[in-house]
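can u pls check wat happens w/ acetoacetyl-coenzyme A
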Amino acid sequence: MEIKKVMVIGAGQMGGGIAQVSAQAGFETIQYDINMDLVDKGLALIKKNLGREVEKGKRTQEDADAILARIKPSVSLEDAADCDLVVEAIIENFDIKKKVFEELDRIAPPHAILASNTSSLPITQIAAVTKRPGQVIGMHFMNPVPVMKLVEVIRGLATTDDVYKTIEKASIKMGKTPVWCKDVPGFISNRVLQVMINEALWELYEGVAPAENIDNIMKLGMNHPMGPCALADLIGLDTVLAILNVMYDGYGDPKYRPSPLLKQYVQAGWLGRKTGKGIFDYSK
Ligand code: CAA
């Protein structure tokens, strides 16, 4: 099966990025969110990203315009009716995703693949709410989507080889390198990454050193492009906490228990860059 038309559910920082790389790949793309304000915000960010590339001479204005023209705004899930691939990138809440996948399963054509960008919820459980579990798969993009090369492809218990191969091809067309793994809590990426971030938050909680020092040690000593505290703020502390909780529940292993400081930041509404304050302050 060849992908021609893609619908992206969610116009947040991940969904917007996915819509951008989908349109860059030449796919007809629909950017959906629950209201036009949210869709417009997502499209504005895509426009800004493409504009920056034009300014840097990495892309022509005509090319940027053509990419934007391939993205159609939508506030109706019914628009999935003629899509080959739907990529969901909404809030990490199983009950909300369940409703969306039930609807998409009803609306999308029988051949369509339903993918989730979930960073930790089980693909197998999401697939089970549909009548096409073999055509449900995880496409885990990394933030910032236009820049990061990886798509972690998660194969649920029922995902077929054909569906995996189609997604592998589509990911490559989007300029990404697909790397697959089985459907385990946290997949591969977050099982490694979030344990590191959580450990940094335990260090901060214990007063071992300020966040700047923790980040500098990992940047200068380990060549990480950004330290774990800045990265947690980029991902969103609420997302970090949600992923740790999924792994804590999923494995029943105390090594995933979230730092109390992480919980407190989330309770305070200090969620990172998106709220202007997280471990670091972004208000200035
Ligand atoms: N959107 C589009 N482009 C962006 C961008 C964004 N949000 N942020 C940066 N860029 C582009 C810049 O325009 C720049 O492009 P050029 O090379 O063409 O000039 C390039 O990326 C590098 O940016 P900067 O020079 O401003 O800064 P940098 O070199 O420090 O790179 C970074 C920024 C790419 C974010 C880098 O710090 C990095 O790789 N950080 C780690 C990111 C990471 O680990 N992401 C994964 C998070 S985990 C996840 O997403 C999944 C999950 O389940 C939680």
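The chain has a mean pLDDT of 97.
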